[in-house]
Amino acid sequence: MTEALSTAAQGPTQQPRGIAQYDALVARASARSPWQVSGQGPAAPDGQAPSATAARQAAQDARSRARYQPDLELLAQILSVPVRAQATTQSGLLGKGLDAWFAHELRRAGFAPDAVWPRAQDPRVLPTDLSAFLEGLPAPLRRELERRLSRMRSVAPQDARILGRAYTKQVDVVMSSWQTGPELLLSTKSQSGSFGNNLANRFEEAYGDAGNLRARYPLAAVGFAFVVSSAILAEPTQVDKAVDMMLKLRDRGDGNGYTTTTLICYEPLLDGEVRLRPEVFPAELGPGPFMETMIDTVLQAAPATRHSQVRELRRHGTATL
Predict the structure, then answer these.
(1) What does the mean pLDDT of the chain come to?
(2) Which of 3, 181, 263, 291 sees the fewest Cβ atoms within 10 Å?
């Protein structure tokens, strides 16, 4: 189904555009579980099987030790695409790359591929119920419906638009279904320069979006990812301001603000590649803790029988998808 939809949407000779420019990188990337457990719990005495209580405690201990390890190598490869193209922030190419990366990370964590938008192929937004319906059709009918669907942007759009409390918002990375409503809403922003002039505007927009979405979907994981170029390091005052504001955008327990936030710095190199600079910002703003909080929020709000693969990977750490 995915191959047919992609071909129908783009045509056999058309060069990839927008988010499709990252499809090959994402397809080659590792699908291994991102959870890594540090250390091992005490073993049961020789000849004795662990008790049920001990097994439960071991599972809880493993979860508490498990840490999310994002694929930063893939993120650097993705960010090198707009850097080599000398694309401006306004072009949206860098933003689409961020969306592709975060969506891949959620699929790597065990969420169903079609449940995470943008999907890894066209159409980027497709309700899971509709996807399952198409999979169950005879092949000739399925291909015909796929061809028609690729042209119906009102049914299978390129971007997800979510109704908030006050206005409809285009949200960059989404997990939602007809059954559950939005479970995860992630907004991405980037900035490569003019920090003194535009940084405050970015945060004002972000704070408004957080209130708009959290007010309507209080149980959803609502996150904000902000990616800046290393040019900000030449302005220490703006670095401090960015860190301070990203922390203040978080919910302090009153239902306002984002579930969590992350601040990522990249450095364009002379050869067109990109190096990530995780050391320049506090570890609590890193993408690893960000993904942990977003995923745990989704799992805590969902029934225990939902997202079973995510729970299994979260519990045991280093399983393979």
Answers:
(1) 86
(2) 3
